[in-house]
Amino acid sequence: MINRFFLLTFLFLFYYNSSSAQHLINKDSLLAHVQELSSDKYEGREVESTGNELARAYILQRFQNIGLKSFDSSYVHPFKFYSRFTRKTYQGKNLIGYVPGYKDADHFVVLSAHYDHVGIKKRKIYNGADDNASGVGTLIEIARHLTQYPLPYSVIIAAFDAEEIGLRGADAFVEDPPVKLDSILLNINMDMISRNKDNEIYICGTAYSPFLRPPLDSLAKEASIKVSFGHEAPESTGADDWTHASDHGKFHRKEIPFLYFGVEDHEDYHEPTDDFEKIMPDFYHQVSEFILRCLTALELNY
Ligand SMILES: [Zn+2]
Question: Ligand 1 centre and the CA of 14: distance in Å?
Answer without folding.
Answer: 33
